UniProtKB/TrEMBL annotation:
Listed InterPro entries: LMW_PTPase, Ptyr_pPase, Ptyr_pPase_sf, Tyr_phospatase_low_mol_wt
SMART domains: LMWPc
Ranges that cross the membrane: none
Identification of the protein by name: Phosphotyrosine protein phosphatase I domain-containing protein
Pfam families named in the record: LMWPc (PF01451)
Family note: Belongs to the low molecular weight phosphotyrosine protein phosphatase family.
Region listing for Disordered, in residue ranges: 146-169
Domain Phosphotyrosine protein phosphatase I: 4-190
Length: 217
C-alpha cells in the first residue's frame, strides 16, 4: 500500500505536470531507493490532451534534468484522482481552483507548487514525524502546510504560478523546468526525510534524531 500519494495538475498534462511527476519519481528513486515504491506519483490536466505524449521541448528539458519522459500519456483530471491523493500540487492558482471545484474536501491537501514551497519555509521540518504510519491521515508535512496557509500576505500569492511554456521556444521550457525543480525538491526532501524516535537516557521523553539532509540538486 502506498504511504503517500502525490498528484500534480496543470492544463494539458503534457508540459508542466508531467515534468513535475517524472522529476519527483527520479528524485525519490535516488534518495529513497527501494522505499521509493511506497510513494505514488501521478499527474493530470484540467483540459488534458488525453493519451498525448509529453510536448517535445518539455520532454527534452525533463531528460536534461534527470527525468525520463518515455511512456508518458496525458490524463484528464477527475474528482476521484484528487480525493484519493494525500497532496495535490497544481501549477497555477486557476488549476487549484479547478481541483477544489471538483473535490472541495481536498482544500487542505491542495496547493500550487510554489505556494507549498513558500509555506515550507515557515515549517519546522525537523520536528515533524516521517511519512510512515499516517494511519489514513495526510502526512504531517501536509497538515503543517495547512496551518501556515492563513499567515500569507496577499502579495506573496502573486508568485504562486508556474507559467505555461506551450508554444514557446525550448529556453522557456528550460526556465519552467528549473522553476519546478527549485520549488519541488525541498518539498520532497521534507516529506521523505527519515526521523527515528529515540528514548532519552535520563527520562521517557522522545527526541527526534534527524540524519543528514538529502541532496537538493
Amino acid at each position: 500500500m502506498d504511504a503517500v500519494r502525490i498528484l500534480f495538475v496543470c492544463t494539458g498534462n503534457i508540459c508542466r505536470s508531467p515534468m513535475a511527476e517524472r522529476l519527483t519519481r527520479a528524485h525519490l528513486d535516488e534518495v529513497l531507493g527501494a522505499r521509493a515504491s511506497t510513494v505514488s506519483v501521478t499527474s493530470a490536466g484540467t483540459h488534458a490532451v488525453v493519451g498525448g505524449e509529453m510536448e517535445p521541448s518539455s520532454a527534452a528539458v525533463l531528460a536534461g534534468l534527470g527525468g525520463d519522459p518515455r511512456g508518458f500519456r496525458a490524463r484528464q483530471l477527475t474528482a476521484g484522482m484528487a480525493e484519493s491523493a494525500d497532496l495535490v500540487l497544481t501549477m497555477t492558482r486557476n488549476h487549484r481552483r479547478s481541483v477544489l471545484k471538483l473535490a472541495p474536501r481536498t482544500m487542505f491537501r491542495t496547493y500550487t507548487l510554489r505556494e507549498a514551497a513558500d509555506l515550507l519555509q515557515d515549517v519546522d521540518v525537523d520536528r515533524l514525524p516521517g511519512m510512515e504510519g499516517t494511519d489514513g491521515q495526510p502526512p504531517a508535512l501536509v497538515r503543517a502546510l495547512g496551518q501556515q496557509r492563513g499567515t500569507r500576505r496577499r502579495g506573496d500569492r502573486e508568485q504562486d504560478d508556474v507559467f505555461d511554456p506551450i508554444g514557446h521556444r525550448e529556453s522557456v521550457h528550460q526556465d519552467v523546468g528549473e522553476m519546478i525543480v527549485e520549488a519541488l525538491y525541498p518539498l520532497l526532501d521534507a516529506l521523505c526525510a527519515e526521523r527515528a524516535p529515540v528514548a532519552a537516557p535520563q527520562d521517557d521523553d522522545t527526541q527526534w534524531i534527524v540524519p543528514t539532509r538529502f541532496r537538493v540538486a
